[in-house]
Specification:
159 residues, 7 helices, WH-like_DNA-bd_sf, RNA_pol_sigma_r2, transcription regulation
Length: 159
């Protein structure tokens, strides 16, 4: 019975730390990242780590603060690297031919499943079996998706 009582007390202590410090930790993360969604993700991940290590942590607030700052620093570094290695902007890319623009516009009229099937078949040159595996359907369904997708594309390109 004492093990169960200790677990209940332990969970209550964790819950109290979470309720009292989630908002301040989120504000700390937001100031560092500049993104509320990233801040919430960082803090959630930090609390998850704290939950797993709570038996060894003597000062939860200090531990969480350090974890949040560390994760925020990593998040900012990743964003800097992503920006540095991001593909060139639209202005730096060569202009598309009128046919390419028309095909891209026609592709926007396909529903996502048809668009995925057409892309996998005609851009990645996958077989029907490979497309079926990627989409989680039967090869016969792939044939149907391709047929309908191509019909919509033809209709859009004929206009």
């Amino acid at each position: 019975m004492t093990v169960l009582a200790d677990r209940v007390d332990d969970d209550a202590a964790f819950r109290a730390v979470y309720e009292n410090h989630f908002a301040p930790m989120t504000r700390l993360a937001y100031v560092t990242t500049g993104s509320l969604s990233a801040a919430e993700d960082v803090v959630q991940d930090s609390f998850l780590d704290y939950y797993h290590h709570r038996h060894r942590v003597t000062d939860p607030v200090a531990w969480l603060r350090r974890a949040v700052v560390s994760r925020c620093t990593s998040w900012v570094r990743r964003r800097v690297l992503e920006r540095r290695h991001a593909p060139r902007g639209v202005a730096d890319q060569p202009a598309l031919s009128p046919d390419a623009v028309a095909v891209r516009r026609a592709l926007t009229h396909l529903n996502p499943r048809h668009r995925a099937a057409v892309f996998l078949r005609y851009y990645l040159d996958l077989s029907e079996a490979q497309i079926a595996q990627a989409l989680g359907c039967r090869p016969g369904t792939v044939k149907s998706l391709l047929h309908r997708g191509l019909a919509v594309l033809k209709e859009q390109l004929d206009d």
